[in-house]
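Section: protein folds

Sequence with per-residue tokens
===
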Amino acid sequence: MEEYEYYTWLFFFKRKFKISKRKPLPEMIEVFNACTNNESQMSPDHFRRFLIEFQGDEDVTVDYAKQIMEKVLHQLRPDFARCCFSVDDFFNYLFLDKFNGPIDYKVCKISNNCYLCCLSNLISVLLFSLL
């Protein structure tokens, strides 16, 4: 079933657009690959690296990172077996209000290139770390 969103333009005209399935942006995949050394799964140690290098948290232990991952995974897939993020899990973590504050994916996708604003901090840190 297709989902549609509506907005009013110039107070009179109603516009309709189809909501596409959320998928990770290329910049998010780059950050994921940078933290995991191009592995397909993000372990608690890799997630700790993300929290320190990209989020700016300094006093993060592997146990603390694992606790966060378990909370997120329990919310996303209650029957998870291993405490590891896939790219999709990591993407969903970034948009969970409980952990990261309100990042509205619809706003990021609607306005032209607005997603760059949402991820500018992550990208700039990634670029500076590669130089």
